[in-house]
């Protein structure tokens, strides 16, 4: 059986400027600390989602 190690996002990535935002989320540039590779991270504000959206895993960002 495989094991999974959970880490905090900020332990592995450095967040930088905001690239865009919607009703429920913000997209920010980030860099993986161990490789220097750049990515975009979509950070979803789950407090703005309805209970139904949270339960089904569905949301709208428009």
Average pLDDT figure: 85
Secondary-structure-derived class: alpha+beta
- Report the end-to-end length measured between terminal Cα atoms: 40 Å
Spatial strand sequence of the major β-sheet: 1-2-3
Largest sheet: 3 strands, antiparallel
The number of distinct β-strands equals 3
What is the C-alpha radius of gyration, as a whole number of Å?
14 Å
Give the overall shape, derived from the CA principal axes. Answer: flat
The percent range for strand residues is 35-45%
Percentage of helical residues? 10-25%
Taking pLDDT < 50 over at least 5 consecutive residues as the criterion, the unreliable ranges are none
What string gives the helices and strands in order? HEEEH
Number of helices: 2
Keywords: ATP-binding, Nucleotide-binding
Protein name: Protein kinase domain-containing protein
InterPro entries: Kinase-like_dom_sf, Prot_kinase_dom, Protein_kinase_ATP_BS
Binding site for ATP: 42
């Amino acid at each position: 059986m495989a094991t999974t190690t959970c880490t905090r996002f900020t332990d592995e990535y450095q967040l930088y400027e905001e690239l865009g935002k919607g009703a429920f989320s913000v997209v920010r540039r980030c860099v993986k600390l161990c490789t220097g590779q750049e990515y975009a991270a979509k950070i979803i504000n789950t407090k703005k989602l309805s209970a139904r959206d949270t339960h089904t895993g569905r949301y709208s960002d428009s």
